[in-house]
Design goal:
By secondary structure, this protein is of the alpha/beta class. The protein contains nine helices and 15 strands. The chain is globular. The structure holds NADP nicotinamide-adenine-dinucleotide phosphate.
């Protein structure tokens, strides 16, 4: 059912894996958005006006009011700036950019043009995250252990950009863990990092990170892209009043081993509800904290060369 508010006409750039898996089906059911246009060099969508480039889309007489940018982070800045300067509201897939400064510049451009910029973090909308945040309120956190271990060959077959500078390697999924952690925990900062970089690649395939907060609470993060078999996306928080385990990327929650009832998965529905709310209230949501921690790992981390990686 469409919303009682005017529906927002939206374009999408980069019709690849995440656009096809999540954006397109979620938009088809969205009460707030109509997906009216797509700009993609090698793909088209039935039912939308199709363009090869964003410039062509922006030059069309019936421009959309908003755009979702689903290309790899290294090429998103120019598209985002062009869209903001054309007066469109912009949804950035995660991570919001390849550098911190470019995203800050986009935030300024959004404010200057009176439009919304939304730096999305889909994992924050996993069903266990809000209940976990509420449970942690008022409890004393003793330690946090995050393990994000998955099989890159399964999840990113043939995606060369993730291994290039700005692609972030294992931090492409790892930043999802950091997006949840920055939402759940008091502010923390990196003290140590080891980045394991394959001899034939630019970006890490594994990383071990140690963070602390102002109370010296240890927060460890293990990222690994070579895990076959069952995949691990876990955040375990030890508190003065029990242990919280957020697992399967935030879709399951256990308290002292007891599974908690949760609503069904609706991460991208949550993102588009939020984008509509931001547009209608004339505000931006640009939280850089997950990207700051990744940048700090690249700034502060020790590099270890490891075996070459072949797809
Ligand atoms: P992808 O399928 O490799 O790329 C998306 C599309 O971007 C491609 O189909 C391509 O469309 C366009 N593109 C690729 N390289 C480009 C380049 N150099 N210049 C211009 N356009 C280019 O990537 P993805 O997995 O969907 O990921 C895209 C973003 O979403 C990433 O930031 C990722 O972290 C995030 N994300 C991914 C997932 C996931 O499960 N894959 C989940 C959540 C978020 P055309 O060739 O047709 O132009």
């Amino acid at each position: 059912m469409k919303s009682s508010q005017p529906v927002i006409r939206l374009g999408l750039v980069g019709l690849g894996k995440i656009a096809t898996d999540q954006h397109v089906p979620v938009l088809a059911a969205s009460p707030d958005f109509d997906l009216v246009a797509v700009a993609s060099r090698n793909a088209t969508l039935e039912g939308a006006a199709n363009y090869a480039t964003l410039d062509d889309l922006l030059a069309a007489p019936e421009k959309p009011e908003a755009i979702a940018l689903c290309q790899p982070p290294q090429v998103r800045f120019a598209a985002a700036l062009a869209a903001l300067e054309a007066g469109l509201h912009v949804f950035l897939e995660k991570p919001p950019g390849a550098t911190l400064a470019e995203v800050a510049l986009l935030h300024d451009a959004a404010r200057a043009n009176g439009v919304t910029l939304f730096a999305s973090w889909h994992s924050r909308y996993a069903p266990g995250v809000e209940p976990a945040r509420r449970w942690l309120e008022g409890r004393q956190i003793r330690s946090v252990a995050i393990a994000w271990k998955e099989d890159v060959r399964h999840w990113h077959p043939g995606q060369d950009w993730i291994w290039q500078p700005g692609g972030m390697g294992v931090f492409d999924p790892g930043i999802n863990a950091l997006s949840i952690a920055t939402h759940l925990l008091p502010p923390f900062f990196l003290t140590e990092a080891i980045l394991s970089v394959p001899s034939n690649r630019q970006a890490p395939i594994a990383a071990d990170l140690v963070f602390r907060d102002r109370r010296n609470t240890p927060i460890t993060v293990t990222l690994d892209w070579l895990q076959t078999g069952p995949q691990t996306w876990d955040i375990q928080v030890e508190t003065d009043a029990g242990t919280l385990l957020l697992s399967k990327g935030g879709s399951q929650l256990g308290i002292d081993g007891e599974p908690q009832p949760l609503p069904p998965e609706a991460e991208y529905r949550g993102l588009y509800d939020r984008f509509a709310q931001l547009i209608r209230s004339g505000t931006c949501d640009v939280d850089l904290r997950p990207l700051i921690h990744v940048a700090d790992a690249f700034l502060r981390g020790e590099r270890r060369r490891v075996a070459a990686f072949e797809d």
